Amino acid sequence: MTTFLPLLATESPVAVPGIFEIVWIVPAIMAASFVAILLFSKRLSIPAHWIGIPAIMASFLFALAIAGNWIAYVGDVADSHDSGGEALAFVDGDPELAAASADDEHGKSIGVSCLTDDANHADDGHSDEESLAPAALGFVEEGEAPHVSPCPVVTQVTWFENGGSAASGGSDIQVGTMVDGQSVMLLVVVTFISMLVHIFSTDYVAGDRRYTHYFAFLSLFTASMLFFVLSSSTLQMIVGWELVGVCSFALIGHWWEDKPNSDAALKAFLTNRVGDIGLLIGMIILYFAAGRTFDIRAINEAAVTGAISQNTLMVAALCLLAAVMSKSGQFILHTWLPDAMAGPTPVSALIHAATMVVAGVYLIGRLYPVFYVGFDIEGSTINPLALVGGITCVGGGMLAFVQRDIKKVLAYSTVSQLGYMVLALGVGAYTAGMFHLFTHAIFKACLFLGAGSVSHACHHSFDMKADMGGLKQYMPKTFWTFVIASGALAGIPPLAGFWSKDEILVGAGVWPGTGGNGTYYLPFLFGMLTAAMTAAYMTRVIWLTFFGRYRGHAHPHESGNRITVPLIILAVGAVFAGFLNVPKVLPVLGSRIGLWFEEMVEPAGIATFPVIDHGKPSFSLAIVATLLALGAATLVYVYYKRLYAKDAMATDYTDSFVAKNRFIRAGHTLLVEKYYLDHLYTGTIAGSTKGWMAQAAYWFNQNVLDGFIDRVGSGTTATGRFIYKYIDQGAIDGAVNGSGLGASQSGEILRKVQSGRVRQYASLMFGAATVLAAVFIIAV
Amino acid sequence: MFLNQFLFLAAILFCIGVYGVLTRKNGVLVLMSIELILNAVNINLVAFGSFNQDIAGQVFALFIIAVAAAEVGVGLAIVLLIYRNRRSIDVSEADLLQG
Amino acid sequence: MTSLGILAAEMTNTEVWVTNSFFLAIAAVSILAALKMVTTDNVVHAALYLLIVLAAVAAVYVILGAEFAAATQILVYIGAIMVLLLFGVMLTRAQIGSETDLDHDQKWIGALISVVLAAVMGYSLWEAFSDAKLPDNRVPQGTEAVADSIFGIYIVPFEAISVLLLAALIGAVVVARRD
């Protein structure tokens, strides 16, 4: 299956681990689990989780094995390059590309093409199955760290033959898997969170009326997400993108008997359709721009080498941005995400916080050169990506302040953090964005599952003000894991969120001495603001939920092991995940671990990825950001402590400064009304369009259709009169009478055709066929 | 041997079958006429297979024979059902599709 | 040379002459039997006339060198389908003798359509294939070739057909079941 090319005689290419060719097994296991649950669970009365949990565990172990192989592979490739000494140009087969890389205008190297292998395969006529090889031996700029990443390992089969492979001028459609740092990272994250959510769910949705359905869709979702993550072509990505959308729809509407739930599911689905138009258009533009190929490597390489003009890339990137905005809940299309919390809480944790909603971010990462070159991220001060991300992270963060529903707070927090990731990618901090995706998945899953645990104890209510408070002493495990995850989200060192957030702020390149791609003042400002706000609203949530006195009417109790164990595992992750990528200047950890995550995930020295400047970490920035977060948290803590000192049981307060000050109250109302975006969508846009369209249709009906019919009628009458007057008098009485009654009689005749008699139908069919045959014979 | 010999035979049988389908009232007779039509088609297939020296014609004739068997099975079941419900297999009486 | 001329020339060849005569006889028999089948007023007779047509078609297959199709025709049609049809006749309690109202009143519609259809088809066949001759050196397409083909490139349609038969079997049972 794998064919290794003899690269250069002196270099022994690093063997691609065979496991990379069978990664399709991971989604396949989950798909099989979906089918098995649907077919067997109810009929053989096997509890659905007996199928789902072993499947997801197998997937997780497989993903770990793949990750281990990838880590070893990256190391081997880097070593082989080191031993090679001088930077080598691998110019086999594509001199143009090599030339392009040699005199690149930025003076930076483009790196080795990952496509040359493809071409060779096509020549051999072996386009059926191919596996991309091996070590890319690349140009490395002098003086830069000699880290060279392996090319993405692609295993493809031809799905649809369309005139030969891309290299031979046709456009065969290939499907397959693509293993690189980004996909391996997501592979591990998705299977890990999914596994914990499966375990959590066995308790949380126990006894649900659609337990089997629930687990079946969890499996299908995991399979779809993995399919999306491992896609090697943009076409496959669209398929995966829609599949996860369908699963999201089904799971948001899990309790569809309640109208709000099914409404929320529809809203999510329809909002995502808006973005899907962008996705389709963007992918089609890229398909043609990159020379009729869906291959992600080819598109990326064409973008990096300048084979596609910047304008085209910008248009494509803008279209794709629409898709990102809908799927990843970016501002103005984010409204579905908070409503999506109507689904079961574990689903919110898995789909609407940790995995599916990052699909948009993942899409940017997958086609990063398109965005990087298209938006000219390098060296500018603002671009659409950073702007959308910045507005989203501030706007979402502000909305999180006014929610009573604990899940809604977390939902808006997710919106805000997704904005952070997009901002990171927008300012060129690729690894920071991906790293934030990674850490956020862990601590946000922990927060959502924690919220689920809390509501499990409080009669499935999510209202923080009415039904919670003082839960600290009742559910200590949930409390501590929630606090740790909140700290991670707020960016308190040394928890996970601190490291990833810090890298994003560094990447903006504004703080003195950080460097990076360009200087993004506005996004940086937004980022700092969000850092403070995140700490503040999370403190509010913790206070309302766990401090003060219990205001509900249930008997809260700590949840069972199947709920707390996933929480603890995730909390441990929230503490330690950040250490995977720490600045090299940090004592002890810096030299041992350093930028390990970056080396594993970010491609370097290959042509499918742009050369990115990395910011230099700054202690002062880290200290300022931390102080900002801590200060905001303290402020909120003090505020709520004083507020509830007056009336510990208050579920709504009328004498807080929010209620007193007119301007703040106005702002509060604006936030409660979610910036009136829903009003805009359903009231103004949908309403006016509906009204306008109805009116237009009415007008059309009244004037055009009726007019037409009137004309026809009067025309018929006139003709009839004419005939009566001139021809009827000319003695053809019977014929004229018949045609005069034409309109009513044709109806009668047509009614008779519908006799229901089979024989008559058969006569008509054969007669018509005969007539048609005769017409063909005469005409042709 | 001319190809047309066979094609004409097939065409004539086909038209006779069509006539049968259109004029017969008895459901079983209609089914028989349909068999006639299918046989006419089969003659065409085999004749073209022989003309082009291609085995595909005969193979598809075999497939059609199999399909005809299935069709007769289901068709007779339907006729029996009609008979059981109406005590008659006059297809012109089965006019529930009337609009 | 017109095609009739070719035919006349060919008639000098004994083998062709015999085959052609044989074919003409079969064609005449089958057409007559078919006509009787659609006009007779006895259902059982109609079934027997159909039997003659089917046998004649099998003979045509033999002339065309399609031995396996001919054998299958006899086995499946005459052996199975005819029996099914006779069962159908029996179960619907048709009279064994003549019946009066087997046909519709308006037979002329059917006659018109089939005559026009025959004219159209005849014209187009004459236009398209008047010179087409079967190859003289054609080899009979034996059972081995059929088997190779069915279980080779046509394996998927073959499997589909077998599933179809199964579905038809189940469908027939479900439809005709007395419940």
Give an account of the 3D structure.
The complex is a heterotrimer of chains A (780), B (99) and C (179). With 780 residues, chain A is mainly α. The two termini of chain A are 52 Å apart. Chain B has 99 residues and is mainly α. Chain B has a domain of 64 residues. In chain B, α1 runs antiparallel to α2 and α2 packs antiparallel against α3. The longest helix of chain B has 31 residues. Chain B is elongated. Chain B starts with a helix and ends in a 13-residue tail after the last helix. By secondary structure, chain C is mostly helical. The N and C termini of chain C lie far apart (68 Å). The mean pLDDT of chain C is 84. Chains B and C meet through α1, α2 and α3 of B and α1, α2, α3, α4 and α5 of C.
Oligomer: heterotrimer
Biggest β-sheet description of chain A? 3 strands, antiparallel
Low-confidence stretches of chain A: 1-11, 85-107, 118-145
- Please identify, by name, the CATH architecture of the largest domain in chain C: Up-down Bundle
The number of helical elements of chain C comes to 7
Strand content of chain A: under 5%
- Give the overall shape of chain A, derived from the CA principal axes: globular
Number of helices of chain A: 31
Q: Provide the structure class of chain C.
A: mainly alpha
